[in-house]
Design a protein that fits this description.
This protein is an all-alpha fold. The chain has helices spanning 13-24, 28-31, 33-40, 42-69, 76-84, 86-118, 120-123, 138-157, 159-185, 205-213, 216-219, 240-263, 268-273, 279-324, 343-355, 361-389, 407-428, 438-463, 467-475; strands spanning 127-131, 134-137, 390-391, 404-405. It contains 19 helices and four strands. The chain is globular.
Length: 485
């Protein structure tokens, strides 16, 4: 077997917590509150996100176990290989790669949208064309490209820089959200009376809450960035579970605070009925003026920056792991000669994301909606693998170094499997409150077809890798082992 390239262990615990939290809280928490409230009402959104966070915590039990036992880059790609073999590993990696790059692209697009709201005269220059009802401006494309290039550069410079930046951005974001909520809560122009009715009166309370629970994989996607960086922990991988849980709790609180802050500004039924490029920004500016808007812009910028940074880290590490296993071209597993980072994956992610603003925001949203399927599939593989490794009793344990007699955790892993299947069903079953639109389903079919063609092209080379070598390349294990648990 040849030499296996590994990454430098430089990530500190609070940086990893910031990667999980900052990736979970992206642009949506600051741009989407009026959209979510129009569906479920303020309390419907808060309860829905609360239930979603609890479901994610159940799934996180499996993630904590898998990270502790397999602290390697690739995360779900490696986990699928452990339980179901190389073909399933490719499927998990293929869907996740799409999901991660799409989220990078959408965050860059959201930053350009924010600049358009704050400086409309500046951005709405050089109109080029219209796609799906969305005007595309050259200025927007340039802004998105600049911010992507900035983060690609600093990610290439090293995990230490990107990790410390992530933590700083998270701290500023949390302080900004707390300040906004406190200022609006104390303003004589706002109040809790505006939060009534608590739920959308046009739908049942159950339907309102479920419609929000259904988007939990999208809302909290980011905590699963932690396993992608596991190979770079400079601390025990046993801490990963608690870091993920603390990040999910913080994310649920931040989502709830932004919903309350927006809903308190004015009667929310009137607020969501207004057509505006940024409903949350308009509502907060009406109550707190320029000061409030500045704080919100800072919070949104930090949310976008943490999302960009976190998912550039994750997508590049995922491609690094897949390349190391010879599924992707070898260039993606080469490290920068000076900074020892997987620079090709970082550059590729930024370059693909730079193309997104040319297609208009609406087209990009179709792709991102479709990528929620990829995230749910990743959850499913992780929970299934944990379920297979956990045993009901000591009598079931065949490999004490890997299998663990833990009936309660095995049950939670099973719940995680069922939750993941539920998320997939909510997105794919017609009539579901979260059923994908026709455009997103077309995008999903296209991505699946491309994946099938790519896999058939690589299949011969991939299948000819001896099992022992592939296990070594993916998991770092040199001993013989079964492909399935």
């Amino acid at each position: 077997m040849g030499e296996r390239t590994t990454l430098k262990k430089s990530l500190k615990p609070h940086w990893v917590w910031a990667i999980a939290l900052g990736s979970s809280i992206g642009w949506g928490a600051f741009v989407q509150p009026t959209t979510w409230m129009s569906t479920a009402g303020p309390m419907g959104v808060i309860i829905g996100f609360g239930i979603g966070a609890l479901l994610m915590m159940l799934i996180a039990v499996s993630y904590g176990f898998m990270i502790k036992n397999f602290p390697v880059s690739g995360g779900e790609f490696a986990y699928a290989f452990v339980s179901l073999g190389r073909t399933h590993a490719f499927i998990a990696g293929w869907f996740l790669t799409l999901g991660y790059i799409c989220i990078v692209a959408l965050n860059a697009s959201a930053f350009a949208l924010m600049i358009k709201f704050v400086f409309p005269a500046f951005v709405q220059n050089f109109p080029m064309y219209q796609l799906a009802g969305w005007d595309v401006y050259l200025t927007e494309v340039i802004i998105a490209a600049i911010v992507l290039a900035f983060f690609a550069y600093f990610n290439i410079r090293g995990t230490g820089i990107s990790g410390s930046m992530q933590f700083l951005f998270c701290v500023v974001m949390v302080l900004s959200v707390v300040a906004l909520t406190a200022l609006i809560g104390s303003s004589p122009l706002a109040g809790l009376n505006n939060v009534k009715p608590a739920f959308n009166p046009e739908v049942t309370t159950f339907a309102a809450i479920i419609s929000i629970v259904a988007i939990a994989p999208w809302a909290y996607v980011g905590f699963d960035n932690v396993p992608q960086a596991a190979e770079e922990f400079n601390f025990s991988s046993k801490k990963a579970f608690s870091l993920i849980i603390f990040a999910l709790i913080a994310a649920a609180l931040l989502y709830s605070l932004m919903i309350m802050a927006t809903a308190m500004t004015e009667p929310w039924l009137g607020l969501v009925g207004e057509q505006h490029i940024w409903g949350t920004g308009m509502a907060i500016q009406n109550v707190l003026g320029t000061t409030g808007l500045v704080i919100l812009v800072i919070a949104l910028s930090m949310g976008i920056f943490t999302g960009l940074n976190g998912f550039i880290i994750s997508s590049s590490r995922l491609m690094f792991a897949m390349s190391r296993a010879k599924v992707l071209p070898a260039v993606f597993s080469k490290l920068h000669p000076k900074y020892e980072t997987p620079y090709a994956g970082i550059i590729f992610t930024a370059a693909i994301a730079m193309s997104a603003p040319w297609f208009g925001r609406e087209v990009l949203l179709w792709v991102v909606d479709m990528s929620s399927i990829g995230v749910s599939i990743a959850y499913l593989y992780t929970c299934y693998t944990a379920f297979a490794l956990f045993k009901w009793s000591g009598k079931d344990v065949t490999d004490p170094s890997r299998h663990v007699a833990a009936p309660w955790k095995k049950f939670l892993a099973l719940v995680g499997v069922l939750a993941s299947l539920t998320f997939i069903g909510l997105l794919l079953v017609p009539g579901s409150p979260a059923f994908l639109g026709i455009e997103s389903r077309i995008a999903l079919v296209v991505w699946v077809v491309i994946g099938i063609v790519f896999y058939l092209f690589k299949r011969k080379e991939y299948s000819e890798i001896p099992e022992e070598e592939l296990r070594y390349l993916i998991l770092g294990e040199k001993s013989d082992g079964e492909d399935k648990v």
